[in-house]
Amino acid sequence: MKRLIALALLSLPIIVWAQQATLTSGNPESEGMSPERLDRIDQRIQQALNDNWFPGAVVLIMRNSKLVHYKAYGYSDLENKVTMKRDNIFRIASQSKAITSLAAMMLFEEGKFQLDDPVSKYIPEFKNTRVLSNFNKEDSSYSTEPAKMQVTIRQLMTHTSGIDYAAIGSAYFKAIYAKAGVPSGIGNDKMILADKMKVLGGLPIAHQPGEAFTYGLNLDVLGYLIEVWSGQTLTDFFQKRIFNPLGMNDTYFYLPKDKISRLVPLYEEKENKLVKVDHEIYDHVNPVYPTLQGKYYSGGAGLSSTAEDYAKFLQLFLNKGEFNGTRLLSRKTVELMLTNQTGTLPTQFGLGFQLITSANDYQTPASLGTFSWGGAFNTTYWADPKENIVALLYTQVYNSQHREIGNLFKNLTYQAVID
User: Fold this and answer.
1) Cα 396-354-132 angle, rounded to 5 deg
2) What is the pLDDT of residues 398-409, one digit of tens each?
3) What is the pTM for the complete model shown?
4) What superfamily in CATH does domain 24-99+234-414 come from?
């Protein structure tokens, strides 16, 4: 009988409970920010709504680990007048890249790889890399020359590998990748990441590795490497090793059915009006891709999330690798990720983030060491270690003509600092 009970227990499903991590609200003045000046953000967002820049938005600002401004504006569904809520879910697209970088560096700390290892050590298809030297626009044929070195993992994380982007990259590589069936990463639910990254390994790159910054499919390759190193799918690794520990309970590649209603519809501008996207985007992507049940886990663009979930992720870095009572990285690894890796190249980049350094500090009020990026559907974020600020602005517009809202939001956040 005892043996039968033991066998029955072994057959029960294993349930992994997500941790709860609620962000703490604070008094803006106590955290060195003026409530009256924060109101200017509300006024500017409302003006953008009136001007049809986007139907709605969510803004979240933290100072000293406390929420000092967290509001939803306008509508998530403009036609049906559904009010935007703070817990609405957005397609965060390239904001996925930083999460993939965190995952990789967790495995780096476990000794799974070194940053200057060639990618081919783990994905053999990348061994004989060649550089594009000539392209024929008539038939998409091309010629190449040998690369002087193999692409490294560090180059993937800094977008200096020479790998370009499908659908949104240069005209040459959009054609090359389309012909080879390599996707941009979002909405490719009927494909498998490993298959496409192996194909990518046999295609040419845009320039010699390490010689320039080319924004591309690097983090999709890194996502597949995480699967190789961990023996798990990327979605399982994210869920078990990052999302559950941090309490990021609304972040997914493909949404559970009970959360689909919170997904914000995707809009675009047509004849000076905002309308829902009802056609394929980029490389034949269904705009409702987060609601599908796919198996393509794009480390570069595939996730959907809430502003609050992503704020937890960013606070992890301001906390030097720890959040919600869990340490995911050491302080020294965080420092490495937030150190410029691209030398004198125009884009100053660490391991997963764009950085404010002495070379570009003049451009915004953000402090030295601030790290940032955004997503294709006009979501943006940054975190400032010196001022201990985390800030996010989420909208959901395809081919937005008003991405300047990100810098306007940044200026309005810093003008509210009074300590």
Assistant:
1) 95
2) 999 999 999 999
3) 0.94
4) DD-peptidase/beta-lactamase superfamily (3.40.710.10)
